[in-house]
Amino acid sequence: MSITDDTRAPLRSLDRFFIGGQWVSPSTDATIDVIEAATEQLYYRIAEAREADMDRAVGAAAEAFHEGPWPRMSHQERAGYLRAIGEKLRERAADAADIWPRESGILHASARAGTAQTGKIYEYYAGLADTFDWTEPATPQAGAWAEIVKEPVGVVGAIIPWNGPPGLIAWKVAPALIAGCTVVLKNSPEAPGAGYLIAEICEQIGLPPGVVNVVTADREVSELLVRDPRVDKIAFTGSTAAGKRIASLCGERIARCTLELGGKSAAVVLDDADLAEAASVLSAAECNISGQVCSSLTRIVVTRNRHDELAEALAATFSQVRVGDPFDEATQMGPLAMQRQRDRVEGYIATGVREGARLLTGGGRPKGLDKGWFVEPTVFAGVDNASTIGREEIFGPVLSVIPADDEEHAIRIANDTNYGLNASVFTPDVERARAVARRLRSGTVGHNAHRTDFWVGFGGFKQSGLGREGGVEGLRMYLENKSVILNEVPPGS
């Protein structure tokens, strides 16, 4: 099958890159096969960016920022383009919802709900054109008048992971655009469809050339984007290991970066919590994208006297999850995204058994699913927080129940991790939940649920990242403060 053969993906121009407002031919004939997670069959084939292609994309973004109209438009003018993107995304929501499950394994029902919201992200940031304080008055100690101006950081390299591309693209591109930045969007090789869809929309609405450029590349060429001195900021979502590499490269040239990285998030189940309800909530949450979510609550911390009851309730609930075709409305959990991810998860399960954790349910491949990268919902009991499965991010449907001596010990266990992305407190007492939440070292803490909210802001403590995405704080990540100090008060001020 050639790159130009018929494809089931609702996309076009898969043999090209979107650079400088045009679909351009690649510098080589290198291609990437995108494999459908549930069938292991070829879904479509795309062009793979090499060094010359990345150089061209960065050059287009740099020219658009330094020479083009985009940064010099008013915020209201840019907002018009963002609203147009949001409108077109609503029109293409069905296409986005068809692509995402095939690439990443998310349920089609969940993909429909998620992609239906994506356009609102662009509309939200468009609204900040009128409400955000783009300039602030200041009182200088020298000079007659001063203001602080919020200006775009410059050219942004946005690096997107494979698990949730539609939303993660929007939370990077939308604030960058309203700020006045230009963007090189680097798709994941495993899940480039959402990026191609955005490129088609940018072309359709007449976005000025070079403002958004879209390429797909593997790690070696992606590193060229991070190293390029014409790129002022990197916005990355992915593993902590990759984030460390990006941070070190950005540090070499003092480039800005926002890093949304891994997690090993704790659910602290207090002694007054309803264990059956907690088990139901935690099991259902872990079905989302088959546990391939950085904010998953995979460490379940509970006092010893309630440990066995909760572990057994989790095993009973999680083992009943129906695993299968993500397009079947009866399915509750789909496959993992790729073979190497299933190999990774199975490796961690074997390590958990070898290190002495009790496997209560799962641990293998679901019966009758001979094709597709499926893994059974898995629960371990009696997990040592210092063990491999207690400390390392698995990124699959594996829950670890960890016993604690008491509430104080549970909080110490929850905080005893290199990560700090998400957490939750299970208790019917809202004051108690708030008190414990304030003691957890985590970017988000929910109550009686897996809760994250990009509209409020999302990001992590410790090795879970730098900076925030979403909300007003997400916009600030794409701005630089400039102090303007004048010898006289300008007219009209």
TrEMBL record:
Residues 23-484 form the Aldehyde dehydrogenase domain. One of its GO terms (molecular function) is oxidoreductase activity, acting on the aldehyde or oxo group of donors, NAD or NADP as acceptor. InterPro entries: Ald_DH/histidinol_DH, Ald_DH_C, Ald_DH_CS_GLU, Ald_DH_N, Aldehyde_DH_dom. This is Acyl-CoA reductase-like NAD-dependent aldehyde dehydrogenase. CDD domains: ALDH_AldA-Rv0768 (cd07139). Keywords: Oxidoreductase. The active site is at E260. It comes from Pseudonocardia endophytica. Belongs to the aldehyde dehydrogenase family.
